[in-house]
User: What shape does this take?
Amino acid sequence: MRNDDSDMKIMGDDYDPPEEKDDAGETAQQLEKQKANGNLGRARQLGAMMAEEVSAVEGDAPAAGAALLTQRRILLAFAVEVGFEAFLPDNLLAETAQSVFYETLRKDAPDFYEDLQESGAFSFYFLCVREGRQVEQKVGETYASLCGRPKDEALAQEGEALYRRFIDRVQRFVEGMGFLR
Assistant: This one.
């Protein structure tokens, strides 16, 4: 097969390539701004607080079993992540809060952290969010399915309520901590 480059266009001396964005420089400026106004510290504090909240959850029926408790905590961790993205002023702060959240879980609840890392549950929950319709209901139904009881309406309602409660909790903490926009 012959290579034919007759359709190649050669840029002349007057070609001015588009300017490349200096993302690293912009990120560094944003980091300095968020550090100076205290938002970065607040995001770190929020991440640690929410990790403690998730770790402390026993639920209404702690004797129901370790697998159910793990699924409950995974759902709450997902809700926290969605809450960070929804309510924090920018992605840098959301990523900071998430990083501290997971690092705190890794140190304070290593067994749960491992379960969370090995679980594919977030993928199923993200599908519910991306679909955009009846998100809370779909998350609840997914929770019941992941608990091995897809037809259990009460468990689906519990999942829906847990998701809503932790999204609201993140929002209240963000509002109460005084993040600057």
